[in-house]
Design goal:
It contains 12 helices and 12 strands. The protein is an alpha/beta fold. The strands form 3 sheets. Strands 2-1-3-11-4 form a 5-stranded mixed β-sheet, with helices on both faces. Strands 5, 8, 9, 10 and 12 form a 5-stranded mixed β-sheet that branches. The N terminus is likely disordered.
Amino acid sequence: MFVKEQKNHSNDKRYGKTLGASLALVASLVMSSTPVLAADVTMNLGFGAPEESIYGRFGKIFKQKAEEYTNGGVEVKLRCCNQISTEDEGFKAMQLGTVDGFFITANNVSPHWPLMDVTVLPYIFQDTAHLERVVDGEVGKIMRDRLQKDTSVHLLSFGPALYRDFYNSVRAVNTMADMDGLKIRVPKNEVMLATFEAFGANPVPLAWSETPTALQTGTVDGGDNGTSFIRDMKFYEFEPHLVILEHFVAMAPLFAADSFMKRLSDEQREQIIKAAEDAGAELRKQVLTETEEIRSWLSTEGGMAMTRPDKADFIKAAQTVQQTFAEERGQDFVDLVNQIQQAAN
């Protein structure tokens, strides 16, 4: 009897150990799964350029900060090269909720939200400090709020400022007269079309997806892009003339669909906005130091002949465009232009 009781007691102890081990395992699995369960929101973030472009760099910084700030609660997947949409169609896709987020050059937003054209006006920003006061200040907030109200799309960050440099395959440009008759690829944007017409060129509206082929085949003589894009897209291989006009500021804003933002908690929404703003500010600083380095590379290793024309005639022509569009677009547009100009002081 004594032996039997001992045996049963031993079984109870073994059972207790087994049960304890099982409970510990379950607890361990629950604890280890917590971060995985927290990462229940995925943001597919698209852009039309290569991974190493300015969009790709912006995306990588944003991804790192977004995943860090949300403690892994939001996973950002970068989709380059028109994988989930094109730049021309990305804004509409966000409105429909079929795309979570997209980097879209400001001028390609204007067909969907005309007020964005204030940032596209030639020589609207006097310098980089002026631009930063606008996009990081009250005017920038007004624009974000109005865009979201009018279109449902969220502007998370204006991103880095890239002055557009002009290039062509026909001749060097030292004065505005040298622009005469050049067939210039221009985005489907009324302000940019009018600007190149004022400069004396022959603007040809083309979607970005059609542009590289049109340049290579000579369908157009040239175009303009942020300096880094000229190198990223290897336009220097068939566009021998680089012209430093700085006529437009090409920003690379980060947008998000309302459908995506609504999948976030209030805390996550604030974290994603902060990640976007911090990523844009960080990349902006990098870009400021890189622009002249890239221009130097394009004019040496890239083989482009670089000119820096006197801008007086270009600025005079641009002021006419500013005034014309402000008058045509109505009071909201005029008010926003005035607010931008006031921020210069």
